[in-house]
Amino acid sequence: MNRKTRFVIVPFVLAAISFLLPQLALADSKLEYWTWNNEGDYVKVDDSAIARFEAANPGVKVEVTYVSYGDYMTKLKAALAANEPPDIFQVPWNSGFKDLAMSGKLEPMGSILSEGFPDINKSALSFVSLDGKAWALPLDLNTLQIAYNKNTFEELNLSVPKTNSDLIATAKSLKDADYFGIALGTKDKWAGGDTWFAQLVYTDPTGMKLAEADSGALGWDDKVFSEAASQVINLIENGVFAPGANSMGAFNESLDLFVSGKAAMFYPVGNFISGGIDAKVAGEFEWSLFPFPGGSGDEPTATGGIARMFSLPAGGDQNGLAADFLRMLTDKQGEEVLVKYNFIPSWPINVPASASDLYGNFTSAQLNARSRTIYTPPVYAALLDGIQAAFNGSTTGEQLAGSMDAAANN
Amino acid sequence: MKKGMIISKPDFGTNRSSGDKKLGGRFKRPPKTLLVSISLMAPAVSIFLGFISIPVLAVLVTSLTKWTGFDVRNLDWIGLNNYIDLFNDKIFIRAFSHTIVFTLATTLLLNAVGLGLALLVNTKAFGTNFLKAVLFLPVLLSPVIVGLMWSGLLRGVGGGLNIFLEFMNIIDQPIFWLGNPKYALFAIIMATVWQFAGYNMLLYYAGLQSVPNSLLEAAELDRANGWNKFRHVILPALYHVMSVVFLLNIIGGLRIFDIVYVMTRGGPNRSTEVLATYMYEQGFQLNAMGVASAIAVIMILLAVFASVIRLRLLRHV
Questions:
Q1: Residue ranges of domains in chain A
Q2: Which of A36, A178, B1, B71 has its CA 20 to 30 A from that of A271?
Q3: By percentage, how much of chain B surpasses pLDDT 70?
Q4: Chain A to chain B Cβ contacts (< 8 Å)
């Protein structure tokens, strides 16, 4: 090769390399994304965001890893402890979130959420905030209500119960007609705990005491908590729930009772399970929702919280890209996809006129939905045990609240 | 043996000649032999260290700390507090006692049923080969599958057992087997025995093949009946097999998790909580890895205790 040829080829090769190297580097880029939602419409929401993200970022692949809910925290903890976390990961809404947020393994999201994200509702942001910092993106919200079989209610001339007395009377009418009351599966524990949160809405009209007790400013043996437990026990004793709650899972045996028509009501139901109910009911009957009632004079109010939330690893190399992916979930198109599949975004939206009645119900219930989370894991565990004991007839409201208080002080 | 006959002990190298003494003891082997010994031991030792000793040591150390499990830099040394707290923890005491009840019940039932089935298939009557295969089938299933199957069978509404009992006019209201603290643990014990009886059967069946026919024939000549043959010939011959099977069942019982988790999640109201489910809850739901590790150490100690008992029992056999 003579000097002239070399003079032409070398710059050409250098230019080619400088052009190709970033491309090669991009081709190697991969965003690892962990979630436990591998069924239902959340998959469609994810797929849509992934397709748009990959189109906007050629060479970057989003690799989704589904981990079952039961194993999720086990694996996430191991990955975080080993300093090999995924680039984006779903985080649980339950009491374990506090420890996770305080672990030092999550990237504070405040500055990220201030750029290119919609205005997240304050209540949703407060849910994911600890020590004044947001630790996750709350994507969407849920409300928990009682599903009821409209056909059975019409057949028996029953109206939607507005108070616990109405609910007891409704359950009695259903029992007389050989139907079960509310199908509830407390084997998974958490669903039983939600009956207590549902009653706490009415025994604590301020809505502040849950947070106060969680922060240690109030004892868990406070009257509002024991009264909520007593209300649940009263409903159990009056046959409001289908028998055998402790032997049924939240979304299998108990849901089967409802979709088979044997039980006329089912709890707890939010938008996360409505698609599954529709699929199982398969048009056999019509169903709708009403908030768990309380005492007379109380406005029926649903409980709710964050449905899905996502965090990024502290100091993650790819946090910039990961934040871009989260923006795809929350931008205008992301919002449209969420609404299309009956999910409630955690920011203000205009409900389209074409939305289903059920979606209208979800969003209106969300307006005043009350918290269903205890951040102190041992207290939450004591509540769930206490509710199982209540279904076995072996505790009182005072004992249940007392055990929560004891768990907090241990 | 003739009186006065002297049997010399075999020499395994313990009686050193004067030439050996020049080496100055067993560790002064030629370097080549030492190298070979080390290289032969290395794989086993590495596996033992890597997969058993170091993890057990790590669990032991973690049990002396307060740790949420997220970041090893946040370990707080608290000494024996986790152990002290555990023995003051009512749920732990319940889990401990359930584990002991479960282990004893399953060990006794599995051995009784397993040995009975082994004796049955050992008769070599028509169909016993088929029976052997069928009885072993549940062992091949995952405990999760078995748990789901039994959960379905024991369902309150629409469960196979209740349908059968209603059909036989034994009950008129469904029984919620897994939702009632009176029955739940018993139901799990039954499911476990159903799954693993075939495994014990196979071990006992293998043991039965080594019972010398000459002894059985001698017993027959002495007009021993079936029970006496079983008691005085078969059972003593199975002593070693039985001790191993008992130990395996005890260890299996102590670490039972999956079938309990699937069938009841330890409920209702902790009535089926066992050490492993409580350990899981502490470690992965309550983020108390130190407490979970303390429970793991207690489980290891229980298993070691069972092994020591077995070795002591076998010492004189």
A1: 28-141+307-361, 142-305+364-409
A2: A178
A3: 90
A4: 99
